[in-house]
Amino acid sequence: MVLDDLGSSLRGTLDDLRGKSRIDEEDINEVVKQIQRSLLQADVDVGLVMNLSENIKQRALEEEPAAGTTARDQVLKVVYEEMVDLVGDSTELPLEPQTIMLAGLQGSGKTTTAAKMAWWFSKKGLRPAVIQTDTFRPGAYDQAKQMCERAEVDFYGDPDGSDPVQIARDGLEATADADVHIVDTAGRHALEDDLIDEIEQIEDAVSPDISLLVLDAAIGQGAKQQAREFEASIGIGGVIITKLDGTAKGGGALTAVNETDSSIAFLGTGETVQDIERFEPNGFISRLLGMGDLKQLSERVERAMAETQAEDEDWDPESIMEGSFTLKDMQKQMEAMNKMGPLDQVMDMIPGLGGGIMDQLPDNAMDVTQDRMRRFEVIMDSMTDDELEEPQSIGAAQIERIARGSGTDEETVRELLSQHKMMDRTLSQFSGMGDGDMQRMMKKLQKGGGGGGGLGGMGPFGD
Amino acid sequence: MFDGLKDKLSSFRSSVEETADKKAEAAAEKESAAAESAQDPARDEPDSAETAVDPSSGAAAATTTEDTDESAAAASSEEDTTETDEDDGPSAFKRAAAFATGKIIIEEEDLEDPLWELEMALLGSDVEMSVTESILETIREKMIGETRKQVDTTGELVERALHDALLDVIQVGQFDFDERIAAADKPVTIIFTGVNGVGKTTSIAKLSEYLADRGYSVVLANGDTYRAGANEQIQKHAENLDRKLISHEQGGDPAAVLYDGVKYAESNDIDVVLGDTAGRLHTSDDLMAQLEKIGRVVDPDMTLFVDEAVAGQDAVQRAKKFNEAAAIDGAILTKADADSSGGAAISIAYVTGKPILFLGVGQGYDDLERFDPELLVDRLLGETE
């Protein structure tokens, strides 16, 4: 994700401030240096980084922390606000008929993005159409056409045409029935005057409601100049960052947002047409700073629990807290977990768990955990209802049968049973506890043998 | 490309010069004052007096260190400063000697500000963080404690340090591409790898033209069986250039296409096979494993990594990963005409230890340039035209 490293290095630096009630200039300088390094490593423009860090420094030193806030929280608040200020809100895209034009460098992913956006609008109940005006790059027409077929949206293009402006005009006419027109253009960079003239003409012809700049997450310091030139010629209303599923941090997009005085509209995160997300600034920054995205997490939990419960009316999650935790509960819990989305995303949203602890886990920890959860699910599917309700009654013969039935081995079945036993024990210790004890519990869990062990107590995903 | 970096390098040079000159001036003043008072205590006294007497050496090339007075003082009188100064930087003896012979010594604090500026300039030119650090380290090593001879200007010293530091990171395992092709058994198989949208297919079209210009016959093989429009794209290039293209249906096995390409070349006496692959992000494990398989099945003579000159810090990350999955022999940097800094070139060469061979500089088939690191460094450090 964008700026991941800023999160972890910043957390490290900020942790050093823990417990201090006053911070001196030296502390701030250290934090600021860390921020500079991280932002630069994320490809944010050097000038922008200097401005941002200067603001943070000044505010952190001048502003009096509110009563009861620690120095660390104060710095965190300043950093948070400055970052939010920079990133801004997600680009406003009303769900109504409109024309959107895409622009960007060669290979930044405009054509793929056009199809993805069309798919996104179609899911919102609008009828989109993609108009392909790239007459230069061989294969552009075929690519756009195929992508639109996958997205199941209208498409217009002319494989034999040579005038993009004419195609754009014809395209708007031919797709007049559609609500949202997405005009894809040929890749160009801002230093090619004739191509810039061309896109200005296309803009004249289609008069888009908004023009979006498509940027590869890996773009470096050049983002500034590109953004500035595109802004000057067609006016950029928003930025789309593509290829965020790689390791690039997308800092160039921040530069572009700053340069064009716009905001981030979408994130591209994969090769299929569904791999597109609207940008969510608050959650994004919170996660970035290791504050967790509680709002989104609680929404996800509620939704997942409700869905799981709706499917099975007999199951009542409240009973867990009363001290009876059966395999069925565990099964439901795992189902709910799955509905929340990929585990690492969920973990990242938990304050205190996101970032800090995640950083310490090996890279494949989440994959391993998820594999394990899947295996456990298969095993539980091979159990009878009685066995699920009363796991202690499961004997050796049953274990053998379950292992055979689920295509696993007896050892894994035993693992599942002992995992359940452990969770049951942990939960019965906590049941009847007041809210005030929650913190103590969290502490205990975190201490309990570092990453894996700590998580083990929290659910069926210890290792 | 590289113009931005060039300007920044020259500003680094002048800011070091300025610092050194200031230092020299201050030292000269101090010195003449010391000479006037003419107390003659230290061992270097005769020399020092001589320097002071000779106004040309005193003013022009100048002497000693720092605008603070420690070294001038050490040279002219107070012996006790000798001990205290020994902990940091060049010893007072060395300084005294330098003072006497009309040299100045560059110290860490003289470079601190210019080096910080240089660091920002390099990062601002997309040179990756670790590579930047390595360049700075070399410069520090080469300059700090170095005595500037009377005949050298500070500018020359800085230039030499920059030259060495840059060449150190850019010039890695250079080889002559043309010679390698000429010497290799035919057909020569070259596979192109890289992330999505960097310009692999376009580079293949350009390189096929480059090779044809040099009298080689070329066949293209489309190993990108994944991306929508990939077959049509390379097909069009093949038609435009009148090259034979081997391709399979979309969704086929890329290794099989490339293998067929090689077989075709063998039976038709073709010199070079250029094999395209689908763009893939280095985080996609199965696609990277597929690259490994291609490497095993086709066993290419050369694997070229394609990346874009506009890429930032991440260029290093992906170059490393691609090099791990299918060892690369060199790199092609595309879209060099869109970029004014070129730090990616420096970084990729440094982390992979493999040379940049070509630059893509436009959308035409002949917009492909050979990349020569020494020429680049000379250009970077040369007089601004």
Structure description:
The complex is a heterodimer of chains A (463) and B (385). In chain A, helix 3 runs antiparallel to helix 4 and helix 5 runs parallel beside helix 6. The C terminus of chain A is likely disordered. Chain A is α/β, with parallel strands linked by helices and 463 residues long. In chain A, strands 3-2-4-1-5-6-7-8 form an 8-stranded mixed β-sheet, sandwiched between helices. Chain A contains 22 helices and 8 strands. The radius of gyration of chain A is 26 Å and the shape is flat. Chain A has 3 domains: 84 residues, SRP54, nucleotide-binding domain (Four Helix Bundle (Hemerythrin (Met), subunit A), Up-down Bundle), CATH 1.20.120.140; 189 residues, Rossmann fold, CATH 3.40.50.300; 165 residues, Signal recognition particle, SRP54 subunit, M-domain (434 Repressor (Amino-terminal Domain)), CATH 1.10.260.30. In chain A, helix 9 links the parallel strand 5 and strand 6. With 385 residues, chain B is α/β, with parallel strands linked by helices. Chain B folds into 2 domains: 170 residues, Four Helix Bundle (Hemerythrin (Met), subunit A), CATH 1.20.120.140; 196 residues, Rossmann fold, CATH 3.40.50.300. Chain B has 17 helices and 10 strands. Chain B has an 8-stranded mixed β-sheet, with helices on both faces. In chain B, strands 1-2 form a two-stranded antiparallel ribbon. In chain B, helix 1 crosses helix 2, helix 1 packs antiparallel against helix 7 and helix 7 runs antiparallel to helix 8. Chain B is elongated, with a radius of gyration of 28 Å. Chain B starts with a helix and ends with a helix. About 12% of the residues of chain B have low confidence. Classes of the chains: A alpha/beta (463), B alpha/beta (385). The interface between A and B is large, with 50 and 46 residues.
